[in-house]
Give the backbone structure.
Amino acid sequence: MTTRIDARFAELAKEGRSAFVTFLMAGDPDPATSLDILKALPKAGADIIEIGMPFTDPMADGPSIQAAGLRALKSGMTLRKTLEMVRGFREEDNTTPLVLMGYYNPIYIYGVDKFLADAKTAGVDGLIIVDLPPEEDDELCIPALKAGLNFIRLATPTTDDKRLPAVLANTSGFVYYVSITGITGAAAADSKAVGDAVARIKRHTKLPVCVGFGIRTPQAARAIAEKANGAVVGTALVDALRDSLDAQGRATTKTVAAVADVVASLAQGVRGAKQAAE
Amino acid sequence: MNSRLPNSFRTGPDERGHFGNFGGRFVAETLMPLILDLEKAYAAAKADPSFQAEMNGYLKDYVGRPSPLYFAERLTQHLGGAKIYLKREELNHTGSHKVNNVLGQIMVARCMGKKRIIAETGAGQHGVATATLCARFGLECVVYMGAVDVARQAPNVFRMEMLGAKVVPVQSGTRTLKDAMNEALRDWVTNVHNTFYCIGTVAGPHPYPMMVRDFQSVIGEETRKQMQEAEGRLPNSLIACIGGGSNAMGLFHPFLDDPSVEIFGVEAAGHGLTQLHAASIAGGRPGVLHGNRTYLLMDDDGQIQDAHSISAGLDYPGIGPEHSWLHESGRVTYLSATDDEALAAFMLLSRLEGIPPALESAHAIAKVTELAPKRPKDHLMVVNLSGRGDKDIPQITEILKGRKQ
């Protein structure tokens, strides 16, 4: 099975560069603006897009992404509407990989089988579910793989060599290395340590390894892109979006461009990386 | 749901932390290795007679156990039915049952070489117990507490600070217990290398629900012995209040395989079950939050809803996973009491027995006033008086003042 994610990494390998993976929260600050931002991301330089599924209790997220989720929920966002947003994007773009990222409860309540069928139909390529470690693979990971969706696992500094094989066993698409122990938006990652960690993971898998958490500047994105197959940026984009809102937290005429501009400058960083890791 | 009744209700959880369909380990990868280490460390401690002996020594001389099983004569006369006994957990050092669990977990943390302890707290009872044991063992202590709870449980905040703990008011979400738990989990993910998360109730990822239950089971084990000494037989019924449900699990667990013992858990019905409340079993359904699958209050999109209870300790939109399983298997009956019923019970016990109960425990007393009159005089009813009401007096004074105006 070749997915849009596999195809994208194959193209990037030919180009000899790493992927720029961007995150946005579905429905932040409202469903229409959020879809406009999503549509603007590939043109601005995003190679793969993670779409956050808002949740009231995001236990691994820092204040920026927590607030983004609450803005989205306040604007009436639901998991059903997130899938509608994916369908809206797919009307125009059938190649950029879309990965849904979030927490398990909204999916569990939607119904696992129905969710997987609807997500696949909508044009979702992969899932990153923060609170489903390999110990709970029966819940969603195995059914997702059967439904033809990639299940992208997080590996962390605490995932040691003994544990890595279990973490990688049912992982597909790519491995998301969380460069720090902490929540989203926290301290920056040290690129030397990241390089060592990526090399360690690559001893266990042929999958591409993308690195996220703590990347905010084009320089940092470039440094990571030199060590890994992809750099993931989330909080910096969510912050740019927040700073473009009016006093009531509503979108302004600047909102879409504010996010696209930051994406474009970070994409320059990634594309300026000397050599993609392999 | 009675079709697959187990031979025993006391064998759970399985090796993956499941009580039937409930429980599990729904946590971020960063925490998973630590949770596996904790499981090993706890298994080793449980099998180590010297660990048990040391813990029993502290339970006796530091906590003040065993706590008395007290015949509430005037309450019994007043209600005119069952003979009511109070399990006096409020007499423990720190004023509630919470210390039983904290002592055990701090001892496990020491075995694991962890020097920094974090905890979440609602009413502040678990925070106070954690701050106390950290002072006793010279450990750094950080307590997360919802900003709303910081305001309504001021005496406990002062107490924690006096004991040397850092209290962090949590401003995110609904600013109550669930948000305090989110924030504690965020701290843990960040400081996983040196930090032990001392969870205050029978919830969270495996092995916490099992471990906390085991440490609290001293309540039920003592009750068995004490009732045997007082009456020469088992009690006929047990009643305890439930937020996460640790005082209830502690009382219930040693009796689960005694079919003659009726067991009642009491959730917080807040303003009433059709309005804002905190009764996850009565008003919720199974979902996944804070590391486990259990009954939760949520909307149709799976978003967690605000709980409400007059009692900060019960103001949580979930319940321990073993309770969810005991509910579905039918072994335990789950009832609920409103804010007003709890307040009335608070006053009743204060006036009849000279014992002001914690507002949490008052929910259990409220259901005793309904159940006891319908039982015969030889019916032995045990209610867990899980905490003392001193911490609630400022809040209750305000409420009563408001009502007079």
User: Anything to note?
Assistant: The mean pLDDT of chain B is 96. The longest strand of chain B covers residues 262-270. Residues 17-58+98-212 of chain B form a domain with the Rossmann fold fold (CATH 3.40.50.1100). Residues 4 and 113 of chain B are 42 Å apart (CA to CA).
